[in-house]
Structure formats: structure tokens, C-alpha cells
């Protein structure tokens, strides 16, 4: 006779240097875009939860901004948010990029030595490695750097080998009831997710420093029958940046609005009317009060 296994639930922190694919990995596991992604580092600014529930377990992933060195206040906030995610979790997933090892990776691994929880190394972006045998010496080296509980090569983008990771994580979760209702996929509000989808377009469509000087606030969010009306402010630090976000004859802001609206419609499964305004808030990335007002606590 087999006994039915007890339900397991727990928290899993995703850490790694910027741009290794932490947010892509979380979205891939959830099958839903909860955390925004871009080709550029430091896209994720806040720690946010992604909840993955099946019939026998609930894993609560903590996506974090990448850990890196910086003097800028907003960057220090992000590093703090990432490090605090290590507290009280049941497992840590340390994400690196296949065939790459940098000082940034090494610095984070040093910090992980202090946490008592099992650390699983995910070697992401293996879709870029061909032939696959090239990965073997890299995996061996990685194994020598830290007593990892497991090593999982995968591709977050292609969805390859995610099951191995889930299997490694599941056995490390304690038995216990779910921490969140089973239909909940994140701790963040729809308003927050919509603001993030707009910010993602700023990252996709504008180069240089502008995305790093940008914040998005949803001012108005109203659901009507079959339609959601959203007004949002795009905050920048200087007039010159405002001109860039607007673009010639307002073309850039229009394109940002169109793409963001499509992404939001996909998320909300509803028609969306989106209005964007660009405003200047001088020096907000270096100002404690402004940061607090904009939701950067810590
Ligand atoms: N080729 C490839 N690219 C990936 C993979 N996972 C993530 N990326 C890309 O890496 C970049 C950074 O991803 P993101 O999830 O924002 O990284 P994060 O900063 O660690 O959260 C994005 O351009 C992703 O599309 C993968 O498995 N394969
Ligand atoms: Mg991220």
C-alpha cells in the first residue's frame, strides 16, 4: 500500500548577477509574465513573489534585482532587496550563464556561503551552447566552487529542463499547507504589474541611460464592463529625458503605449484603454524621500 505524500510548500529565492535570466526563469515556471525582462541589466527593481501551485506542492519564488556593486541610492536599494530575499527561505537558486563566470558571480557566491539553506546552481541559457559537450568542463568547475545541493543546466527561454529544477526543489520543501491561495500567482497588485509592463517597454524601446532614470506610476485603474481604463505617469529625471521619451511628434510615447497596452491586455484578458503622461521629477533616483514615495522601501 502506498501512502499519499503530504503537501509541501516553501519559499525559494532566485539570486544571481544582473541579466543571467532570473526573471525569465520565474516566468517560465509560472507560465505567466509576472516579472519583466529585458536584454539590459537591472531591469528588475523590486523583490516580487511568483507562486507556483500544483496538486502536491506550492513553491513561492522570490525574484530579486541582481546583486552588484554600486554607489547610487536606487542601486543600493536593489542590492538590499536581493540580499534580504535570502532570509527565511527553504532553498536558494543561484543562477549563472552557461560558459560564463565573472567577478560578479564570485562575489554573490561568497555571500551564499553565509546562508544555511541548500543552494542549487542553475546554469541558464544552455540553448546557446553547441555542441552540448562544451558544457561539461564548465559544470565541473562550478561544482568545485561551492558545495551546491544540485547543479541544473537549463534554458529558461526555451523552457528546457525546468522539470529537473522543480524536482530538485520539491524535495527540499518542508511539509505544510499552501502559503497562498492556489489561484494566486504573485503578491503584487494588477496595478503594479501594469506599471511594470509599461516600464518594460521603456527598457525595450529606449537606449542609453533613460530607462534607468524612469519610473512608472499608475494613477488611475478602473475596470468597466469589458474595458479597463488606465492612466499612468512616466517619471523621468530631466527635461531632456522627457523629450526622448516623447520622441519626435510624440511617436515614441505612442509606440510605448501601443506595445504596453497589448501586453496589459494579454495579462488582464480584457480590452484596455491606456493613457500615458510624461513628467519630470528631478533627481528621484538619488533622493530617499522620492524613492520611498515611489515604493522603494528598505
Ligand atoms: N538565449 C537565452 N537567453 C535568455 C535565457 N533566459 C533569459 N535570457 C535573456 O537574458 C536577458 C536577461 O533576462 P532577465 O530574465 O531579465 O535577467 P535577470 O536580470 O537575471 O532577471 C533577456 O534578454 C532574456 O531574454 C535563455 O535561457 N536563453
Ligand atoms: Mg530580473
Describe the structure.
The structure is a single chain. This protein is an alpha/beta fold and 298 residues long. The chain has a 6-stranded mixed beta sheet, sandwiched between helices. It is globular and about 60 Å long. The structure holds guanosine-5'-diphosphate (GDP) and magnesium ion.
Which tags fit this structure?
298 residues, alpha/beta, Rossmann fold, GMP Synthetase, Chain A, domain 3, 2 domains, six-stranded mixed beta sheet, three-stranded mixed beta sheet, 9 helices, globular, binds guanosine-5'-diphosphate, binds magnesium ion, ribosomal small subunit binding, GTPase activity
* Distinct bound molecules: guanosine-5'-diphosphate, magnesium ion
Q: Could you give the order of strands across the largest sheet?
A: 2-3-1-4-5-6
Helices, by number, come to 9
- Percent in strands: 15-25%
How far is it from the N-terminal to the C-terminal residue, by CA?
52 Å
Number of strands: 9
Q: Major β-sheet, in short?
A: 6 strands, mixed
**CATH architecture descriptor text of the largest domain:** 3-Layer(aba) Sandwich
- Structural class given helices, strands, pairing? alpha/beta
Q: What spatial form do the alpha-carbon principal axes imply?
A: globular
Q: Which CATH class of the largest domain is shown? A: Alpha Beta
Order of helices and strands: EHEEHEHEHEHHEEHHEH
Helical proportion, percent range: 25-40%
Q: What's the average pLDDT?
A: 91
For this structure, the CATH topology of the largest domain is Rossmann fold
| Count of distinct structural domains | 2
Amino acid at each position: 500500500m502506498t501512502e499519499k505524500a503530504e503537501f509541501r510548500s516553501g519559499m525559494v529565492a532566485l539570486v544571481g548577477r544582473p541579466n543571467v535570466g532570473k526573471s525569465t526563469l520565474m516566468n517560465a515556471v509560472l507560465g505567466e509574465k509576472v516579472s519583466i525582462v529585458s536584454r539590459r541589466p537591472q531591469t528588475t527593481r523590486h523583490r516580487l513573489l511568483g507562486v507556483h501551485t500544483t496538486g502536491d506542492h506550492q513553491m513561492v519564488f522570490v525574484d530579486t534585482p541582481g546583486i552588484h556593486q554600486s554607489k547610487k541610492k536606487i542601486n543600493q536599494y536593489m542590492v538590499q532587496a536581493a540580499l534580504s530575499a535570502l532570509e527565511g527561505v527553504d532553498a536558494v537558486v543561484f543562477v549563472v550563464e552557461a560558459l560564463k563566470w565573472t567577478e560578479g558571480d564570485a562575489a554573490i557566491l561568497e555571500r551564499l556561503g553565509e546562508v544555511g539553506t541548500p543552494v542549487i546552481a542553475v546554469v541558464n541559457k544552455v540553448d546557446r551552447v553547441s555542441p552540448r559537450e562544451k558544457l561539461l568542463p564548465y559544470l565541473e568547475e562550478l561544482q568545485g566552487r561551492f558545495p551546491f545541493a544540485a547543479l541544473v543546466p537549463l534554458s529558461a527561454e526555451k523552457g528546457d529542463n525546468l522539470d529537473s529544477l522543480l524536482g530538485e526543489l520539491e524535495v527540499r520543501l518542508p511539509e505544510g499547507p499552501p502559503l497562498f491561495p492556489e489561484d494566486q500567482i504573485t503578491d503584487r497588485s494588477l496595478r503594479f504589474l501594469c506599471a511594470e509592463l509599461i516600464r518594460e517597454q521603456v527598457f525595450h524601446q529606449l537606449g542609453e541611460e533613460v530607462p534607468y532614470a524612469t519610473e512608472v506610476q499608475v494613477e488611475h485603474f478602473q475596470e468597466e464592463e469589458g474595458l479597463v481604463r488606465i492612466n499612468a505617469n512616466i517619471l523621468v529625471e530631466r527635461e531632456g529625458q522627457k523629450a526622448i521619451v516623447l520622441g519626435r511628434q510624440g511617436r515614441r510615447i505612442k509606440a510605448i503605449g501601443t506595445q504596453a497596452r497589448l501586453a496589459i491586455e494579454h495579462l488582464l484578458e480584457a480590452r484596455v484603454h491606456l493613457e500615458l503622461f510624461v513628467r519630470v521629477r528631478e533627481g528621484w533616483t538619488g533622493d530617499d524621500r522620492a524613492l520611498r514615495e515611489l515604493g522603494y522601501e528598505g
